[in-house]
Amino acid sequence: MANVFRRLWESPVGIRTTHFWGPVANWGIVLAGLIDIKKDPEMVSGSMTTAMCLYSGLFMRFAWMVRPRNYLLLTCHAANETVQLYHLQRKVRYEMNKKKAEEQGHAVTP
């Protein structure tokens, strides 16, 4: 057990580096996105969600290209990209249905 902890401690991507703590902190963004799934799509900001998709896409590339490769960061941003793309499609569908309903004179339901 001590040997495993020592290897984790001395690793170039171990627990005493930003290669570890940066992704750990970024999981908070993923958790916030998962919590927002229960909210109405009208509450989703299209511009912010698009920015989050671009942010995660760029950092997935960074995590893949940096040496040593940061698989924890890559996984975190892949998860965030998935959550944000889900929110973006919810927003787009809501706006399309809203436009259709307004043209037909109906109320919009999220």
Core attributes:
single chain; 110 residues; mainly alpha
What is the structure about, briefly put?
With 110 residues, this protein is mainly α. The protein has helices at residues 2-10, 18-35, 46-65, 71-104.
Shape estimate: elongated
Instruction: Please estimate the helix content.
Output: over 70%
Pick out the low-confidence regions: none
Beta-strand percentage range: under 5%
Mean of residue pLDDT values: 91
Major sheet details: none
Q: Give the oligomeric state of the chains in this entry, treating copies of one chain as homo and distinct chains as hetero.
A: single chain
Number of strands: 0
Enumerate how many helices there are, as a single number.
4
Supply the helix-strand structural class.
mainly alpha
Order of helices and strands: HHHH
Distance linking N and C termini: 52 Å
Task: Characterize the structure shown.
This protein has 110 residues and is mainly α. The protein is 74% helix and 0% strand. It has helices at residues 2-10, 18-35, 46-65, 71-104. Helix 3 (46-65) runs antiparallel to helix 4. The N and C termini lie far apart (52 Å). The mean pLDDT is 91.
Provide the fold topology.
Layout: H1 2-10, H2 18-35, H3 46-65, H4 71-104
